[in-house]
Amino acid sequence: MVAPRLLFVHAHPDDESLWTGGTIAQHTAAGGDADLIVCTWAPGTQRHAEVVEAARILGLPREPIALGYADDRIPASAPGAPRFCEARLDTQVREMVAHIRRLRPDALVTYDPIGVYGHQDHIHAHRLADAAARAAAVPNIYRRLGDPWQIKSIYEVTTSAWMVDTLWEHVFDEKEVDRLQAVSDDDIDLRVDIDSAALLDRKEAAIQAHHTELDRSIAMKALMSLPTDIRRKLLATECYHRRDLIPGGTPLL
């Protein structure tokens, strides 16, 4: 069976590696094609350069597409551009539809409706990706942006309860971890287990490419400083909810 063509939509540089790096690495290592859209941080900024390097490490065949909006808390992430959550949604949907119709992915990967842990940029990325995936398939919307394209399935990043328990114990304080959604294994539609040491090494290397965020984020630094067995157990599992936009949808891997 031919591997599905995937489109990953993430809010910030580093999200692609932390939440979906194993899925990307496993997919590309098997010969699958994929693209990455990053909604914040403009070309020419340090974190954009870092996500370009991380994407290369994960095996993506093309540089990430940067929408170039500003990170909610860091105006310098896109000088002169509006904050991602404050820009007009209809303008953003139109832009995303153009990318979808050009790239023609079978499946789209983004966050769940609460952005995994409530970050407003993540929530907005979910809303944008969902609206654009649906609009891209409608012939009489945005006719000048190319032929309509039907995405078959959307896969939404979520977190298993055991992962949240581990993070509570080792990484986050009570206030931070309380924002993470804890989903029982029975409510997870797809669990990707990265059982190849080489692919897990690639995911870790991609995370390490995000030097700026590793220096800034206490939680990210704590995660990557965990004992090797605990860290790799966490990073080796990626969980998704699946929503089919047509009957039968498509597998992710």
In angstroms, what is the radius of gyration?
Answer: 17 Å
- Kindly report the average pLDDT value: 94
Termini Cα gap? 10 Å
Strand line-up in the sheet with most strands = 3-2-1-4-5-7-6
**Beta strand count:** 7
Overall tally of domains: 1
Would you tell me the structural class of the helices and strands?
alpha/beta
Relative strand content: 15-25%
Major sheet summary line: 7 strands, mixed
Assigned CATH superfamily? LmbE-like
Keywords: Zinc
Pfam family, one: PIG-L
Protein name: GlcNAc-PI de-N-acetylase
Organism: Gordonia amarae
Structure notes:
It holds the Pfam family PIG-L. It comes from Gordonia amarae. This is GlcNAc-PI de-N-acetylase. Keywords: Zinc. The protein is α/β, with parallel strands linked by helices. The chain has a single domain (5-243), classed as LmbE-like (Rossmann fold), CATH 3.40.50.10320. The chain has eleven helices and seven strands. A seven-stranded mixed beta sheet has the order 3-2-1-4-5-7-6, with helices on both faces. Strand 2 (34-40), helix 2 (46-58) and strand 3 (65-69) form a beta-alpha-beta unit. The longest helix has 16 residues, at 120-135. It is globular and about 55 Å long. The N and C termini lie close together (10 Å).
